[in-house]
Amino acid sequence: MIRSELIQSIADENPHLYQRDVERIVNTVFDEITEAMVRGDRVELRGFGAFSVKQREARTGRNPRTGESVEVPAKNVPFFKTGKLLRDRLNGK
Amino acid sequence: MSTNTLTRMDLNEAVFSEVGLSRNESSELVESILQKISDALVEGESVKISSFGTFSVRDKSARVGRNPKTGEEVPIHPRRVMTFRPSHLMKSRVERGGNS
Questions:
Q1: Which of A3, A21, A78, B34 could form a disulfide with B86 if both were Cys (CB 3.0 to 4.6 A apart)?
Q2: Chain B residues near residue A25 by CB distance under 8 angstroms
Q3: What is the ipTM of this complex?
């Protein structure tokens, strides 16, 4: 399923809404989650899962081809942990 | 960097202020979005949201685990897990994120 299919399926279930409004709604949800993580915030959606940001410390990496060392700066990476309900559903519980 | 936690309520509120719908309907739509994604994953389908990321399902095979406290061996059954792979856009935005 891709974004447009998700939008279409929500629009089909809500014939009283304009397609472009459904599009805005779906985009708003993903944008809110992204913006929260850019700020370093967590987004906790019970039953579904939680988005958070993990800090990776600076380290000395190595170019695997040349063996040369390179300084990798500290950075933040997005992280997702599946919620219990969804994890159980995936396993047919 | 102080960390706040957003919940469904914040997403509902964002949808509410974005489109002229009632609070009730806004929250139903947010729920419906999460439900659709979950249903697709339960069916074994991946969900790819451009510029956001991809949710996919992977099968893990059985292995022998160990209780770290007691050292006791316990069988871990085969199971399905979901993974989220952030898009390059999200990764680069989050990477620079709160520090810049």
A1: A78
A2: 15, 18-19, 26, 29-30, 33
A3: 0.89
